[in-house]
Amino acid sequence: MQQLRPSTIREILKVTAQPEVISFAGGLPAPELFPVEAVSRAAQAVLADGGSNALQYSESEGYGPLREWIATEMARRGVRASAQDVLVTTGSQQVLDLAGKAFLDPGDVVLTENPTYLAAIQAFQAMEARFVPVPTDAIGLVPEEIPALIAQHRPKFLYTIPNFQNPTGVTLPADRREKLARIAAEHGLTILEDDPYGQLRYRGSDVPPVKHWDTAGRVLYASTFSKIIAPGLRTGWVVAPHEVFLKLLMLKQASDLHTSSFDQRVAHVYLTSGDPMAHVAKIRAAYGERFGVMDAALREEMPKGFSWTHPEGGMFLWITGPKELDALALLEKAVQRKVAFVPGRDFFPGDAGRNYLRLNFSNSTPERIREGVHRLAALCRER
Ligand code: PMP
Protein backbone atom coordinates (compact mmCIF):
# COMPACT_ATOMS: atom_id res chain seq x y z
CA MET A 1 0.00 0.00 0.00
CA GLN A 2 2.92 2.33 0.65
CA GLN A 3 3.65 2.45 -3.08
CA LEU A 4 0.14 3.53 -4.02
CA ARG A 5 -0.58 7.24 -4.22
CA PRO A 6 -3.93 8.98 -4.52
CA SER A 7 -4.11 10.94 -7.75
CA THR A 8 -3.77 14.71 -7.37
CA ILE A 9 -5.51 15.01 -10.71
CA ARG A 10 -8.62 13.28 -9.37
CA GLU A 11 -8.86 16.01 -6.73
CA ILE A 12 -8.69 18.79 -9.31
CA LEU A 13 -11.15 17.01 -11.53
CA LYS A 14 -13.82 16.85 -8.83
CA VAL A 15 -14.78 20.38 -9.89
CA THR A 16 -15.46 19.16 -13.41
CA ALA A 17 -18.73 17.70 -12.19
CA GLN A 18 -20.15 21.26 -12.21
CA PRO A 19 -22.28 21.66 -15.35
CA GLU A 20 -20.61 24.94 -16.41
CA VAL A 21 -17.25 23.19 -16.70
CA ILE A 22 -16.62 21.73 -20.16
CA SER A 23 -14.77 18.55 -19.39
CA PHE A 24 -12.50 16.79 -21.85
CA ALA A 25 -11.07 14.97 -18.85
CA GLY A 26 -13.10 11.85 -18.06
CA GLY A 27 -13.06 8.73 -20.18
CA LEU A 28 -16.83 8.67 -20.43
CA PRO A 29 -18.92 7.52 -23.39
CA ALA A 30 -21.74 9.82 -24.56
CA PRO A 31 -24.66 9.17 -22.19
CA GLU A 32 -27.25 10.40 -24.69
CA LEU A 33 -26.23 7.43 -26.85
CA PHE A 34 -26.89 4.81 -24.19
CA PRO A 35 -29.65 2.51 -25.53
CA VAL A 36 -31.84 3.14 -22.48
CA GLU A 37 -35.12 1.98 -24.03
CA ALA A 38 -33.69 -1.24 -25.44
CA VAL A 39 -31.87 -2.05 -22.19
CA SER A 40 -35.07 -1.37 -20.28
CA ARG A 41 -36.98 -3.80 -22.53
CA ALA A 42 -34.21 -6.38 -22.12
CA ALA A 43 -34.31 -6.01 -18.32
CA GLN A 44 -38.07 -6.50 -18.26
CA ALA A 45 -37.80 -9.53 -20.52
CA VAL A 46 -35.12 -11.05 -18.26
CA LEU A 47 -37.29 -10.63 -15.18
CA ALA A 48 -40.46 -11.82 -16.88
CA ASP A 49 -38.81 -14.95 -18.22
CA GLY A 50 -37.43 -16.99 -15.31
CA GLY A 51 -36.53 -13.90 -13.31
CA SER A 52 -35.43 -15.76 -10.22
CA ASN A 53 -32.50 -17.29 -12.17
CA ALA A 54 -31.35 -13.83 -13.08
CA LEU A 55 -31.35 -12.88 -9.39
CA GLN A 56 -29.64 -16.07 -8.19
CA TYR A 57 -25.90 -16.76 -7.78
CA SER A 58 -24.47 -18.20 -11.00
CA GLU A 59 -21.36 -19.79 -12.56
CA SER A 60 -18.06 -17.96 -12.20
CA GLU A 61 -17.26 -18.61 -15.87
CA GLY A 62 -20.23 -16.50 -16.94
CA TYR A 63 -23.72 -16.98 -18.37
CA GLY A 64 -23.53 -19.73 -21.02
CA PRO A 65 -25.55 -18.06 -23.79
CA LEU A 66 -23.54 -14.86 -23.36
CA ARG A 67 -20.27 -16.80 -23.61
CA GLU A 68 -21.61 -18.34 -26.84
CA TRP A 69 -22.48 -14.90 -28.20
CA ILE A 70 -19.01 -13.62 -27.35
CA ALA A 71 -17.33 -16.62 -29.05
CA THR A 72 -19.26 -15.79 -32.25
CA GLU A 73 -18.33 -12.13 -31.91
CA MET A 74 -14.66 -13.13 -31.52
CA ALA A 75 -14.87 -14.95 -34.88
CA ARG A 76 -16.23 -11.74 -36.44
CA ARG A 77 -13.20 -9.91 -35.01
CA GLY A 78 -10.84 -12.50 -36.53
CA VAL A 79 -10.17 -14.72 -33.50
CA ARG A 80 -11.12 -18.38 -33.31
CA ALA A 81 -12.44 -19.14 -29.83
CA SER A 82 -15.06 -21.43 -28.31
CA ALA A 83 -17.42 -20.44 -25.49
CA GLN A 84 -15.20 -22.47 -23.12
CA ASP A 85 -12.33 -20.07 -23.78
CA VAL A 86 -14.41 -17.05 -22.71
CA LEU A 87 -14.41 -15.85 -19.10
CA VAL A 88 -17.04 -13.19 -18.48
CA THR A 89 -15.66 -10.50 -16.17
CA THR A 90 -16.89 -7.51 -14.24
CA GLY A 91 -15.76 -5.00 -16.84
CA SER A 92 -12.51 -5.53 -18.70
CA GLN A 93 -10.89 -3.72 -15.77
CA GLN A 94 -11.29 -6.96 -13.82
CA VAL A 95 -9.17 -8.75 -16.42
CA LEU A 96 -6.29 -6.41 -15.60
CA ASP A 97 -6.70 -7.09 -11.90
CA LEU A 98 -6.93 -10.88 -12.35
CA ALA A 99 -4.02 -11.01 -14.81
CA GLY A 100 -1.94 -8.92 -12.41
CA LYS A 101 -2.70 -11.36 -9.59
CA ALA A 102 -2.09 -14.42 -11.76
CA PHE A 103 1.24 -13.40 -13.23
CA LEU A 104 2.97 -10.91 -10.96
CA ASP A 105 5.11 -11.33 -7.88
CA PRO A 106 6.63 -8.25 -6.25
CA GLY A 107 9.35 -6.80 -8.46
CA ASP A 108 8.23 -8.62 -11.62
CA VAL A 109 8.44 -6.67 -14.84
CA VAL A 110 5.54 -5.69 -17.11
CA LEU A 111 6.35 -4.29 -20.55
CA THR A 112 4.00 -1.44 -21.53
CA GLU A 113 3.45 1.31 -23.99
CA ASN A 114 4.68 4.62 -22.62
CA PRO A 115 2.25 6.33 -21.94
CA THR A 116 -0.38 3.70 -21.11
CA TYR A 117 -3.78 3.30 -19.44
CA LEU A 118 -3.71 4.78 -15.95
CA ALA A 119 -5.88 2.13 -14.28
CA ALA A 120 -3.73 -0.65 -15.75
CA ILE A 121 -0.72 0.95 -14.07
CA GLN A 122 -2.74 1.02 -10.84
CA ALA A 123 -3.82 -2.63 -11.18
CA PHE A 124 -0.27 -3.88 -11.76
CA GLN A 125 1.23 -1.51 -9.20
CA ALA A 126 -0.99 -3.10 -6.56
CA MET A 127 0.96 -6.31 -7.29
CA GLU A 128 4.22 -4.35 -6.87
CA ALA A 129 5.14 -4.68 -10.53
CA ARG A 130 8.01 -2.84 -12.16
CA PHE A 131 7.26 -1.19 -15.48
CA VAL A 132 9.59 -1.23 -18.45
CA PRO A 133 8.41 0.89 -21.38
CA VAL A 134 8.76 -0.49 -24.90
CA PRO A 135 10.10 2.16 -27.29
CA THR A 136 7.27 3.56 -29.41
CA ASP A 137 7.04 5.78 -32.46
CA ALA A 138 4.08 7.59 -34.04
CA ILE A 139 2.30 4.32 -34.88
CA GLY A 140 2.85 2.50 -31.60
CA LEU A 141 5.14 -0.16 -30.14
CA VAL A 142 8.28 -1.04 -32.07
CA PRO A 143 8.31 -4.87 -32.00
CA GLU A 144 12.00 -5.16 -32.96
CA GLU A 145 12.93 -3.60 -29.60
CA ILE A 146 11.18 -6.30 -27.60
CA PRO A 147 13.57 -9.30 -27.78
CA ALA A 148 16.36 -7.30 -26.11
CA LEU A 149 13.94 -6.19 -23.38
CA ILE A 150 12.89 -9.80 -22.83
CA ALA A 151 16.52 -10.88 -22.49
CA GLN A 152 17.31 -8.06 -20.08
CA HIS A 153 14.19 -7.95 -17.91
CA ARG A 154 12.45 -11.34 -18.16
CA PRO A 155 8.99 -9.68 -18.20
CA LYS A 156 5.95 -11.64 -17.03
CA PHE A 157 3.87 -10.09 -19.81
CA LEU A 158 3.49 -7.25 -22.28
CA TYR A 159 0.38 -5.10 -21.78
CA THR A 160 -0.84 -3.37 -24.93
CA ILE A 161 -3.89 -1.46 -26.21
CA PRO A 162 -3.51 -1.83 -30.00
CA ASN A 163 -6.72 0.00 -31.04
CA PHE A 164 -7.18 3.75 -30.42
CA GLN A 165 -4.90 3.53 -27.45
CA ASN A 166 -5.72 5.19 -24.15
CA PRO A 167 -4.35 7.85 -23.82
CA THR A 168 -2.82 8.55 -27.27
CA GLY A 169 -5.53 7.31 -29.69
CA VAL A 170 -2.82 5.58 -31.78
CA THR A 171 -3.57 2.27 -33.59
CA LEU A 172 -0.88 -0.38 -34.14
CA PRO A 173 -0.70 -1.53 -37.79
CA ALA A 174 -1.31 -5.15 -38.81
CA ASP A 175 2.31 -5.99 -39.67
CA ARG A 176 3.46 -4.95 -36.19
CA ARG A 177 0.71 -7.01 -34.59
CA GLU A 178 1.79 -10.05 -36.53
CA LYS A 179 5.41 -9.44 -35.47
CA LEU A 180 4.33 -9.11 -31.84
CA ALA A 181 2.57 -12.49 -31.98
CA ARG A 182 5.63 -14.05 -33.62
CA ILE A 183 7.99 -12.61 -30.99
CA ALA A 184 5.65 -13.85 -28.24
CA ALA A 185 5.75 -17.36 -29.72
CA GLU A 186 9.52 -17.39 -30.26
CA HIS A 187 10.46 -15.93 -26.88
CA GLY A 188 7.70 -17.35 -24.68
CA LEU A 189 6.31 -13.91 -23.97
CA THR A 190 2.74 -13.57 -22.70
CA ILE A 191 0.77 -10.68 -24.20
CA LEU A 192 -2.24 -9.06 -22.53
CA GLU A 193 -4.14 -7.39 -25.36
CA ASP A 194 -6.70 -4.88 -24.07
CA ASP A 195 -9.31 -3.89 -26.65
CA PRO A 196 -12.16 -1.81 -25.24
CA TYR A 197 -12.30 0.61 -28.19
CA GLY A 198 -11.80 -1.51 -31.32
CA GLN A 199 -15.48 -1.34 -32.36
CA LEU A 200 -15.45 2.46 -32.28
CA ARG A 201 -13.64 2.98 -35.59
CA TYR A 202 -15.04 5.95 -37.54
CA ARG A 203 -12.34 6.11 -40.30
CA GLY A 204 -10.15 3.59 -42.10
CA SER A 205 -10.61 -0.16 -41.89
CA ASP A 206 -10.45 -2.66 -39.05
CA VAL A 207 -7.17 -4.32 -38.14
CA PRO A 208 -7.36 -7.86 -36.69
CA PRO A 209 -6.36 -8.27 -33.04
CA VAL A 210 -2.85 -9.49 -32.12
CA LYS A 211 -4.67 -12.64 -30.97
CA HIS A 212 -5.61 -13.30 -34.61
CA TRP A 213 -1.95 -14.28 -35.22
CA ASP A 214 -1.56 -16.14 -31.91
CA THR A 215 -0.86 -19.69 -33.00
CA ALA A 216 1.22 -20.44 -29.89
CA GLY A 217 -1.45 -19.60 -27.27
CA ARG A 218 0.51 -16.69 -25.79
CA VAL A 219 -2.12 -13.93 -26.05
CA LEU A 220 -4.89 -13.02 -23.61
CA TYR A 221 -7.52 -10.88 -25.34
CA ALA A 222 -9.76 -8.62 -23.20
CA SER A 223 -12.76 -6.61 -24.31
CA THR A 224 -15.97 -5.14 -22.93
CA PHE A 225 -19.56 -4.08 -23.50
CA SER A 226 -18.82 -0.74 -21.81
CA LYS A 227 -18.31 1.22 -25.03
CA ILE A 228 -20.83 -0.62 -27.26
CA ILE A 229 -23.73 -0.89 -24.77
CA ALA A 230 -23.00 0.96 -21.52
CA PRO A 231 -20.29 0.86 -18.83
CA GLY A 232 -22.84 0.62 -16.00
CA LEU A 233 -23.49 -3.00 -16.99
CA ARG A 234 -19.94 -3.76 -15.81
CA THR A 235 -19.69 -6.68 -18.21
CA GLY A 236 -16.53 -7.56 -20.10
CA TRP A 237 -14.58 -10.69 -20.99
CA VAL A 238 -11.25 -12.32 -21.58
CA VAL A 239 -10.34 -15.04 -24.06
CA ALA A 240 -7.37 -16.87 -22.62
CA PRO A 241 -5.31 -20.01 -23.25
CA HIS A 242 -6.81 -22.86 -21.21
CA GLU A 243 -4.25 -23.09 -18.39
CA VAL A 244 -4.36 -19.32 -17.91
CA PHE A 245 -8.16 -19.39 -18.09
CA LEU A 246 -8.24 -21.82 -15.14
CA LYS A 247 -6.03 -19.55 -13.01
CA LEU A 248 -8.06 -16.47 -13.84
CA LEU A 249 -11.23 -18.39 -12.98
CA MET A 250 -9.91 -19.32 -9.51
CA LEU A 251 -8.92 -15.73 -8.90
CA LYS A 252 -12.30 -14.49 -10.06
CA GLN A 253 -14.04 -16.82 -7.64
CA ALA A 254 -12.04 -15.28 -4.80
CA SER A 255 -12.64 -11.80 -6.13
CA ASP A 256 -16.40 -11.60 -6.78
CA LEU A 257 -17.77 -15.15 -7.28
CA HIS A 258 -19.24 -14.11 -10.62
CA THR A 259 -20.25 -11.12 -12.70
CA SER A 260 -23.81 -9.96 -12.00
CA SER A 261 -26.21 -12.66 -13.26
CA PHE A 262 -28.81 -10.01 -14.00
CA ASP A 263 -26.48 -7.72 -15.97
CA GLN A 264 -25.15 -10.61 -18.06
CA ARG A 265 -28.66 -11.73 -19.01
CA VAL A 266 -29.72 -8.18 -19.80
CA ALA A 267 -26.66 -7.81 -22.03
CA HIS A 268 -27.46 -11.11 -23.74
CA VAL A 269 -31.13 -10.28 -24.42
CA TYR A 270 -30.10 -6.83 -25.61
CA LEU A 271 -27.51 -8.31 -27.99
CA THR A 272 -29.81 -10.97 -29.43
CA SER A 273 -32.92 -8.85 -29.98
CA GLY A 274 -32.97 -5.83 -32.23
CA ASP A 275 -29.85 -4.69 -34.04
CA PRO A 276 -27.04 -3.94 -31.57
CA MET A 277 -24.50 -3.34 -34.37
CA ALA A 278 -26.70 -0.63 -35.89
CA HIS A 279 -26.50 1.08 -32.54
CA VAL A 280 -22.69 0.78 -32.52
CA ALA A 281 -22.70 2.40 -35.97
CA LYS A 282 -24.56 5.37 -34.46
CA ILE A 283 -21.96 5.70 -31.70
CA ARG A 284 -19.15 5.52 -34.27
CA ALA A 285 -20.73 8.24 -36.41
CA ALA A 286 -21.21 10.55 -33.42
CA TYR A 287 -17.63 10.10 -32.17
CA GLY A 288 -16.27 10.61 -35.67
CA GLU A 289 -18.14 13.87 -35.93
CA ARG A 290 -16.93 14.96 -32.49
CA PHE A 291 -13.32 14.13 -33.31
CA GLY A 292 -13.66 16.16 -36.51
CA VAL A 293 -15.05 19.15 -34.62
CA MET A 294 -12.31 18.99 -31.99
CA ASP A 295 -9.55 18.61 -34.58
CA ALA A 296 -10.86 21.53 -36.65
CA ALA A 297 -11.20 23.76 -33.58
CA LEU A 298 -7.67 22.89 -32.44
CA ARG A 299 -6.31 23.66 -35.91
CA GLU A 300 -8.02 27.03 -35.93
CA GLU A 301 -7.16 28.12 -32.44
CA MET A 302 -4.09 26.46 -30.92
CA PRO A 303 -0.84 28.40 -31.01
CA LYS A 304 2.36 27.13 -32.67
CA GLY A 305 4.24 24.49 -30.73
CA PHE A 306 1.25 22.23 -30.06
CA SER A 307 0.57 19.09 -32.07
CA TRP A 308 -1.89 16.25 -31.58
CA THR A 309 -2.78 12.74 -32.73
CA HIS A 310 -5.50 11.99 -35.31
CA PRO A 311 -7.11 8.78 -34.10
CA GLU A 312 -9.31 6.81 -36.50
CA GLY A 313 -11.62 5.76 -33.66
CA GLY A 314 -12.05 5.64 -29.92
CA MET A 315 -12.59 8.50 -27.52
CA PHE A 316 -9.29 10.35 -26.97
CA LEU A 317 -6.65 12.45 -28.65
CA TRP A 318 -3.25 13.35 -27.23
CA ILE A 319 -1.67 16.77 -27.40
CA THR A 320 2.07 17.36 -27.23
CA GLY A 321 2.90 20.89 -26.10
CA PRO A 322 6.17 22.81 -26.09
CA LYS A 323 8.92 21.19 -23.95
CA GLU A 324 8.58 23.80 -21.21
CA LEU A 325 4.81 23.34 -20.82
CA ASP A 326 3.65 22.17 -17.39
CA ALA A 327 0.25 20.59 -18.12
CA LEU A 328 -0.64 20.24 -14.43
CA ALA A 329 -0.20 23.99 -13.88
CA LEU A 330 -2.16 24.58 -17.09
CA LEU A 331 -5.00 22.43 -15.73
CA GLU A 332 -5.29 24.55 -12.58
CA LYS A 333 -5.72 27.66 -14.74
CA ALA A 334 -8.01 25.85 -17.16
CA VAL A 335 -10.36 24.79 -14.40
CA GLN A 336 -10.73 28.46 -13.39
CA ARG A 337 -11.79 29.09 -17.01
CA LYS A 338 -14.26 26.21 -16.79
CA VAL A 339 -12.54 23.74 -19.06
CA ALA A 340 -10.74 20.56 -18.03
CA PHE A 341 -8.46 17.85 -19.48
CA VAL A 342 -6.11 15.25 -18.03
CA PRO A 343 -2.41 16.17 -17.83
CA GLY A 344 -0.42 13.38 -19.47
CA ARG A 345 2.04 12.83 -16.64
CA ASP A 346 0.11 10.11 -14.81
CA PHE A 347 -0.08 7.90 -17.89
CA PHE A 348 3.67 7.36 -17.89
CA PRO A 349 4.84 4.42 -15.80
CA GLY A 350 8.38 5.36 -16.81
CA ASP A 351 9.79 8.79 -17.49
CA ALA A 352 7.10 11.35 -16.83
CA GLY A 353 6.23 13.78 -19.59
CA ARG A 354 4.95 17.12 -18.26
CA ASN A 355 4.02 18.66 -21.61
CA TYR A 356 1.16 16.34 -22.63
CA LEU A 357 -2.62 16.64 -22.44
CA ARG A 358 -5.25 13.95 -23.00
CA LEU A 359 -8.51 15.24 -24.44
CA ASN A 360 -11.72 13.20 -24.53
CA PHE A 361 -14.11 14.02 -27.37
CA SER A 362 -16.89 11.43 -26.84
CA ASN A 363 -18.53 13.01 -23.83
CA SER A 364 -19.22 16.60 -25.08
CA THR A 365 -21.57 17.85 -27.76
CA PRO A 366 -20.01 19.53 -30.84
CA GLU A 367 -21.04 22.98 -29.52
CA ARG A 368 -19.37 22.38 -26.18
CA ILE A 369 -16.28 20.95 -27.89
CA ARG A 370 -15.90 24.18 -29.92
CA GLU A 371 -16.38 26.35 -26.83
CA GLY A 372 -14.09 24.19 -24.69
CA VAL A 373 -11.27 24.25 -27.25
CA HIS A 374 -11.79 28.02 -27.55
CA ARG A 375 -11.23 28.46 -23.79
CA LEU A 376 -8.28 26.08 -23.69
CA ALA A 377 -6.56 27.56 -26.75
CA ALA A 378 -6.93 31.11 -25.39
CA LEU A 379 -5.14 29.99 -22.25
CA CYS A 380 -2.38 28.24 -24.22
CA ARG A 381 -1.83 31.38 -26.32
CA GLU A 382 -1.50 33.55 -23.19
CA ARG A 383 0.98 31.21 -21.61
N1 PMP B 1 -8.88 -0.75 -20.63
C1 PMP B 1 -8.81 0.49 -21.11
C2 PMP B 1 -7.68 0.85 -22.01
C3 PMP B 1 -9.76 1.45 -20.76
O1 PMP B 1 -9.64 2.69 -21.24
C4 PMP B 1 -10.82 1.07 -19.88
C5 PMP B 1 -11.86 2.04 -19.40
N2 PMP B 1 -12.24 3.02 -20.18
C6 PMP B 1 -10.86 -0.24 -19.44
C7 PMP B 1 -9.87 -1.13 -19.83
C8 PMP B 1 -11.91 -0.73 -18.49
O2 PMP B 1 -13.20 -0.70 -19.00
P1 PMP B 1 -14.39 -1.56 -18.43
O3 PMP B 1 -13.97 -2.11 -17.10
O4 PMP B 1 -15.53 -0.64 -18.32
O5 PMP B 1 -14.62 -2.66 -19.41
UniProtKB/TrEMBL annotation:
<dbReference type="InterPro" id="IPR004839">
    <property type="entry name" value="Aminotransferase_I/II_large"/>
</dbReference>
<comment type="subunit">
    <text>Homodimer.</text>
</comment>
<dbReference type="Pfam" id="PF00155">
    <property type="entry name" value="Aminotran_1_2"/>
</dbReference>
<dbReference type="InterPro" id="IPR015424">
    <property type="entry name" value="PyrdxlP-dep_Trfase"/>
</dbReference>
<comment type="similarity">
    <text>Belongs to the class-I pyridoxal-phosphate-dependent aminotransferase family.</text>
</comment>
<keyword id="KW-0032">Aminotransferase</keyword>
<dbReference type="GO" id="GO:0030170">
    <property type="term" value="F:pyridoxal phosphate binding"/>
</dbReference>
<protein>
    <submittedName>
        <fullName>Putative transcriptional regulator, GntR family</fullName>
    </submittedName>
</protein>
<keyword id="KW-0808">Transferase</keyword>
<dbReference type="InterPro" id="IPR050859">
    <property type="entry name" value="Class-I_PLP-dep_aminotransf"/>
</dbReference>
<keyword id="KW-0663">Pyridoxal phosphate</keyword>
<dbReference type="GO" id="GO:0008483">
    <property type="term" value="F:transaminase activity"/>
</dbReference>
<dbReference type="InterPro" id="IPR015421">
    <property type="entry name" value="PyrdxlP-dep_Trfase_major"/>
</dbReference>
<dbReference type="InterPro" id="IPR015422">
    <property type="entry name" value="PyrdxlP-dep_Trfase_small"/>
</dbReference>
<dbReference type="GO" id="GO:1901605">
    <property type="term" value="P:alpha-amino acid metabolic process"/>
</dbReference>
<feature type="domain" description="Aminotransferase class I/classII large">
    <location>
        <begin position="33"/>
        <end position="376"/>
    </location>
</feature>
